[in-house]
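Hi, here's the filled form for the chain we discussed.

Project: internal
Contact: R.S.
Residues: 97
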Amino acid sequence: MPGRSSRGCHSQQTAFEPDRKFGKRQFEIGELREILQIGAKQYEKFADFRKRVIEPATEEINERSIYKVEWEKVTQGRKVTGVAFDFQEKQQLALGI
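And the returned structure, exactly as it came back:
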């Protein structure tokens, strides 16, 4: 995420920690902004929020964690009201010992 260290990302990963039973978490936009400490005036358009926050965060989680995360927007009509994340634990390769 822009301007955030990996250390900061770790605490955000904890907020996103999936329910191990289901692997999915859904957040309303306002709730997601609060978790990520992003003000209501920052990235007001969802396209900017997606480009500057969601996509970089999911890329970093995919690169640095044991999860592969995919996301999709949740809408009511044409309005984006939330984001659903699907976490899958990455398969670990067996060591050929």
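Let me know if anything looks off before we file it.
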